[in-house]
Specification:
The protein has two helices and 34 strands. The protein is mainly β. Among the domains are: 74 residues, no CATH class; 110 residues, no CATH class. A three-stranded antiparallel sheet has the order 27-31-30, with no helix packed on it. Strand 3 and strand 4 form a beta hairpin.
Amino acid sequence: MPMKNIFLAALAALVTAVITVACGGSGDLCKDKNIRCEDPLACDPDDGICKCGGRGGVVCREGEVCDAVSNTCLSTRCAGVNCSSKPGTTCDQLDGQCKCGGTGGQICGENETCDPALKQCVKNTDCSTVACPVNEVCDPSTGSCVCGTETCGPGESCTVDANNKSCAPDNCFGVKCLGNTTCDPADGRCKCNGAVCAPGSVCACPAGSDGGTCAAEVRICQPGSACANVVCTGGTTCDPSDGQCKCGGPGGPVCRSDQVCSLTTFQCQGGEQCTLPDGGMKICPLGTSCDPEDGVCKCGGRGGEVCNSGADGGPEETCVESIFSQTCRQTCDPRFQNCPAGQFCYFDTTAKHPTAYCAVNSGTQTLGQACNNATACFTTDPSPRGLFCANLGTFDQPGSTGFCRAFCDTTVPNNQSCPTVPPHICTTIKDAAPGVGYCQPVQTP
């Protein structure tokens, strides 16, 4: 190599070394420039910029703050924004406006409301075409009936307490009343102008009514003897005025032998689904009867309810047959009061097939007080629970008045499940499950 080229190469190497030493470069601009960042930002050594997340992080824009946990920039535009005046909407983090669907969503127009489930603006519904249950009103934003701010579900009704509306268990849900009676939501019983008619009675207009027609508020229970010893089947009820089994009870049609009574329309209709290949009829569990439309055993027969057997994991139900109604109720054990919140376990001796079931208490008569129906007894001492209305009678021979007694366990020795002062004895309740009894005061000389 010529001497001149060797000299130039050596000079270039020397210059490079001098520049490197002079710059003092370490590859970390944060250290080289002595950069300090405010918490929670950290310096990025590649470019010496304070970032959220440090090396490889991001620079927060105006209206954003760095979140130290996620190392990401979060918007502060929604701080203090209240979207309650625009139901269904949430704040958009990008611009702080209330939108249907939140960030990136829509701003609803004057005649629109937000459907939070669809995250879309929908036109307001005309409530003039919506009929709502008692105490409920139509919400124009959704077209749904609401009870105050709640939407009542199946088996609930809207109640008013001190001007406050709330959804509560509906005792009349699934109850079908016959013979001009209507269901009383207080106890779920079918009544004639507020009164429960005894067997053999009819809910009818007073004597002298024009053509036998009158308003419901003047109807009364009237005794009749024509139904003595008459047994009706297929969903029909005896009419005390003539002793015939009619579909819908007094005043209803008389079904032919090849017809069945529809408890939905109270009309006689034909059906063969309940007939077995050998010509016999399908046998159903106690309280239920076969619906000829589909051959399914239902509480109330044709058009009735299918009581849950519990096989699907849901609560087991029983069919409760009263004089004027048939309905499915959740089964329970009166000793343990194992019912849903707001309901209590009662044993009903006046049901056609005496049984224990869950219901809302219809009264607050406590221990020793008189009662006139199975769900009238209730106490909160020491905890809310139902009591047994003893001596109330049976389906065929109901008594006029019973007395509230505590449930007890007959399997517990020496009557330890009953009070000892004054002395009581745990007495078995007829037709109840094994072990179920009530505390009967001991008669002392």
